[in-house]
Amino acid sequence: MKVTVFGIGYVGLVQAAVLAEVGHDVLCIDVDANKVENLKKGIIPIFEPGLTPLVMQNYEAGRLKFSTNAEEGVNHGVMQFIAVGTPPDEDGSADLKYVTAVARTIAQFMNDHKVVIDKSTVPVGTADRVRAVMTETLKTRGLDISFDVVSNPEFLKEGAAVSDCMRPERIVVGTDNEEVVELLRELYEPFNRNHDRMILMDIRSAELTKYAANCMLATKISFMNEISNLAERLGADIEKVRMGIGSDPRIGYHFIYPGCGYGGSCFPKDVQALIRTAESIGYTPRLLKAVEDVNDSQKTKLPAFIKRHFGDDLQGKTFALWGLSFKPNTDDMREASSRVLMETLWQAGASVQAFDPEAMDEAQRIYGHRTDLKLMGTKEAALQGADGLVICTEWKNFRAPDFDVIKNALKEPVIFDGRNLYDPERVSKRGFVYYAIGRGA
Ligand code: UGA
């Protein structure tokens, strides 16, 4: 099938590459000429396991194309995906200007029936807005061409985006038109073979499903972080509690890892956007507000531990930091806990020596101007002469370090672990003071 994808961001690029991989003819359109030229040369704008070869193979096979020419994009496919960003605007609501701009473009150039598919995370009611913008634009052209608007939210995780997209747990389709369902069945047939993963519903429910999913996961995390704060004060170990409750299948082991707060481009933004949506219709979302509140304060936990240990004035101190990205297997630092940590340490007069397996370029881009941040080539180099070690991201190669190397490199054997990577007893036996989340520090 011929498919057009507007927006070569995370969701758009992964979705496009995966659709091309199963044989569809996919044309990606983006306003960023530089990005498009780079993609043609095999330069992928994001780090995502498995994505580069997938894009390159399909580009070389001619199934995946890139262009800035919107008209060409509109003429290419019956299926027109909107996968552009929905960044938070000033009050935290999702800003739909890119989504509506694409809708206008499609209506400006279309000459026959189109199925417009919202892939971006968009507030409830966006499909109606897309429809209104398109109808309006078609009217100014004096045309009355039919089109459908479908909500088909994406549930991929950064770091596992390709496999999530190749083997989706569910394909949520919100539409009011039975015929469109058949088209989408055909499009997704390769991913839907063994059992039917398509969940059909009305458009508004599909739009809300996306927010509900992310907010539920964020709620699980904030709940665990709240319990970890209790565990810490009650002399209990949150890791034992986690295993104790996870064994109940109604609770499950997923997404109950306490830590130094959730980050990324989705949870913080989506929780906030749903809060704004609720408030805009006169409903006070008490639980969602608490989820956000707990997360904001959880991000200040590591700096608070550090101040508890060293005092409020950190002038002249240097901290080794392992992990800059908001989670492992990505170079994404959006809303990462490491940023709150570093900014608080800098404010208190300390400097940071940081290492991350993938996010060094990103850190350079954001904080390259800072003289109180040194980006180090290895995790061992980051330790040299530092007053303590802080861990913000649970990258695999931080899990079994040589503790003697750490001890010898640090001025003082103290670890502030925001991801509970080590056994507190064992680390203490090796002579460290060990601060972790919800483990009685
Ligand atoms: C999230 C969702 O998991 C995806 O299903 C969704 O499609 C995506 O948002 C999106 O809307 O695009 P992502 O932001 O890539 O995916 O990352 P997650 O793996 O969900 O992690 C988010 C944050 O939660 C990370 O900072 C992670 O460290 C934290 N987390 C996760 C915890 O603190 N504890 C946990 O138990 C799990």
UniProtKB/TrEMBL annotation:
<dbReference type="Pfam" id="PF00984">
    <property type="entry name" value="UDPG_MGDP_dh"/>
</dbReference>
<dbReference type="GO" id="GO:0003979">
    <property type="term" value="F:UDP-glucose 6-dehydrogenase activity"/>
</dbReference>
<keyword id="KW-0560">Oxidoreductase</keyword>
<dbReference type="Pfam" id="PF03720">
    <property type="entry name" value="UDPG_MGDP_dh_C"/>
</dbReference>
<dbReference type="InterPro" id="IPR036291">
    <property type="entry name" value="NAD(P)-bd_dom_sf"/>
</dbReference>
<feature type="domain" description="UDP-glucose/GDP-mannose dehydrogenase C-terminal">
    <location>
        <begin position="320"/>
        <end position="424"/>
    </location>
</feature>
<dbReference type="InterPro" id="IPR017476">
    <property type="entry name" value="UDP-Glc/GDP-Man"/>
</dbReference>
<feature type="binding site">
    <location>
        <position position="35"/>
    </location>
    <ligand>
        <name>NAD(+)</name>
    </ligand>
</feature>
<comment type="similarity">
    <text>Belongs to the UDP-glucose/GDP-mannose dehydrogenase family.</text>
</comment>
<feature type="binding site">
    <location>
        <position position="210"/>
    </location>
    <ligand>
        <name>substrate</name>
    </ligand>
</feature>
<feature type="active site" description="Nucleophile">
    <location>
        <position position="266"/>
    </location>
</feature>
<dbReference type="InterPro" id="IPR001732">
    <property type="entry name" value="UDP-Glc/GDP-Man_DH_N"/>
</dbReference>
<feature type="binding site">
    <location>
        <position position="334"/>
    </location>
    <ligand>
        <name>NAD(+)</name>
    </ligand>
</feature>
<keyword id="KW-0520">NAD</keyword>
<feature type="binding site">
    <location>
        <position position="121"/>
    </location>
    <ligand>
        <name>NAD(+)</name>
    </ligand>
</feature>
<feature type="binding site">
    <location>
        <position position="30"/>
    </location>
    <ligand>
        <name>NAD(+)</name>
    </ligand>
</feature>
<dbReference type="GO" id="GO:0000271">
    <property type="term" value="P:polysaccharide biosynthetic process"/>
</dbReference>
<comment type="pathway">
    <text>Nucleotide-sugar biosynthesis; UDP-alpha-D-glucuronate biosynthesis; UDP-alpha-D-glucuronate from UDP-alpha-D-glucose: step 1/1.</text>
</comment>
<feature type="binding site">
    <location>
        <position position="269"/>
    </location>
    <ligand>
        <name>NAD(+)</name>
    </ligand>
</feature>
<feature type="binding site">
    <location>
        <begin position="155"/>
        <end position="158"/>
    </location>
    <ligand>
        <name>substrate</name>
    </ligand>
</feature>
<protein>
    <recommendedName>
        <fullName>UDP-glucose 6-dehydrogenase</fullName>
        <ecNumber>1.1.1.22</ecNumber>
    </recommendedName>
</protein>
<feature type="binding site">
    <location>
        <position position="327"/>
    </location>
    <ligand>
        <name>substrate</name>
    </ligand>
</feature>
<dbReference type="InterPro" id="IPR028357">
    <property type="entry name" value="UDPglc_DH_bac"/>
</dbReference>
<dbReference type="GO" id="GO:0051287">
    <property type="term" value="F:NAD binding"/>
</dbReference>
<dbReference type="InterPro" id="IPR008927">
    <property type="entry name" value="6-PGluconate_DH-like_C_sf"/>
</dbReference>
<feature type="binding site">
    <location>
        <position position="158"/>
    </location>
    <ligand>
        <name>NAD(+)</name>
    </ligand>
</feature>
<feature type="binding site">
    <location>
        <position position="86"/>
    </location>
    <ligand>
        <name>NAD(+)</name>
    </ligand>
</feature>
<feature type="binding site">
    <location>
        <position position="263"/>
    </location>
    <ligand>
        <name>substrate</name>
    </ligand>
</feature>
<dbReference type="GO" id="GO:0006065">
    <property type="term" value="P:UDP-glucuronate biosynthetic process"/>
</dbReference>
<dbReference type="InterPro" id="IPR014026">
    <property type="entry name" value="UDP-Glc/GDP-Man_DH_dimer"/>
</dbReference>
<dbReference type="Pfam" id="PF03721">
    <property type="entry name" value="UDPG_MGDP_dh_N"/>
</dbReference>
<dbReference type="InterPro" id="IPR014027">
    <property type="entry name" value="UDP-Glc/GDP-Man_DH_C"/>
</dbReference>
<feature type="binding site">
    <location>
        <begin position="255"/>
        <end position="259"/>
    </location>
    <ligand>
        <name>substrate</name>
    </ligand>
</feature>
<dbReference type="InterPro" id="IPR036220">
    <property type="entry name" value="UDP-Glc/GDP-Man_DH_C_sf"/>
</dbReference>
